[in-house]
Amino acid sequence: MLSQFWLTFPAYAIVFALGASVGSFANVVVYRLPAGLSLLWPPSRCPRCGHRLRRRENVPVLGWLWLRGHCAHCRAPISPRYPLVETITGLLFVLVFWLYGLSLTAFGYGLFLTGLLVLSLIDFDTMTLPNAITQPAVVLGLVFQTAVGWQNGAPIEGLMAGVVGAVVGVWLVDAIRLVASVAFKKEAMGAGDAKLTAAIGAWLGWKLMLLGGFLGCAVGACVGGLAMALGWLGRSQPMPFGPFLALGGAIAALWGDAIVRGYLELFFPSLVT
User: Fold this and answer.
1) Suppose 199 and one of 137, 143, 186, 244 were both cysteines; which one would form an S-S bond, judging by CB atoms 3.0 to 4.6 Å apart?
2) d(CA 180, CA 184)
3) Helix, strand or coil, per DSSP, at residue 230
């Protein structure tokens, strides 16, 4: 077992490094996109003094540790969220690689989960889900479904699975938003939530999208109710819902098939083949 670990460790280390590098760019998107700044220029720099990071200072995770969380020029503190996002993204890449191996699914889900993380952070910071991410995510999801279908000899079926998932996702959130808005007599959800759910449906198909939506709503309701009970959130105070939808979508992507199968075996065993 130990020898097998050392044989596979280099592969997982490479995958983690790749994921952390993607996470570094994710930090750029989270910071610059809502501010209307270019994602490519200028290169990474200190937001206080403008000091351009050198190569070793810009290495994901290690660069922050090397600098001890402070700018090398003006000593301004650098948020620990930067290495945390890089670490989380790296671990997500390792997880999908462990689950799916070196495959198209692993590559696609790595990007998909990174996008969900980016949207969650932006929604948490700004209470918005930018069209610049959600709309391309729908298109990329359809491309991914088509490619997976092509790999399985059924590209049209793959494309249609993504299209149906996206459409059902929009309908689902619009229906929830309509009912909740009537019940609470105010806008309950933003249009960005519907677009995010459409993107999840495009990537996962309608079945896993429904599972992800259910999980997201359940967790969001529990967290929101607990926050109001503890006085952390007022009844009229808005709460970002995107992170919960993203969490549900991530769980559905990674373990959705097993969850659905377990549910059917428990309650409808005759439907399981």
Assistant:
1) 137
2) 6
3) coil
pLDDT of 28-75, one tens digit each?
999 999 989 888 887 787 777 777 878 877 888 988 888 888 877 788
Contact 245, 216 (CB under 8 A): yes
- Per DSSP, helices labelled H in the chain are 2-32, 62-67, 81-100, 104-126, 131-151, 155-184, 191-204, 206-229, 242-267
Residue 56, sorted as left (phi over 0), alpha (psi -120 to 50) or beta, turns out to be alpha
Give the gyration radius of the chain's Cα atoms. 20
CB 88 within 8 A of CB 23: yes
SS3 (DSSP) at 110: helix
Q: Are 53 and 27 in contact (CB under 8 A)?
A: no
DSSP 127: S
For residue 30, give Cα distances in angstroms to 18, 24, 133.
19, 10, 11
Q: Residue 64 in contact with residue 78, Cβ under 8 Å?
A: yes
Residue 248 CA to residue 2 CA, distance in Å, equals: 35
Contacts with 180 (C-beta within 8 Å, 6 or more apart), sequence order:
188, 189
CA 231/CA 249 separation, integer angstroms:
28
Distance (Å, whole) CA 1 – CA 252 = 30
- Alpha-carbon distances, residue 113 vs 70, 107, 137, 252, 263 (angstroms): 29, 10, 11, 11, 24
Q: How far apart are CA 237 and CA 98, in angstroms?
A: 40
- Report the b/e string of 147-183 with b at 16+ CB within 10 A: bbbeeeeeeeebbbbbbbbbebbbebbeebbeeeeee
Query: Backbone dihedral region of 50: left (phi > 0), alpha (psi from -120 to 50 degrees) or beta?
Result: left
Q: What is the mean pLDDT of residues 147-166?
A: 93
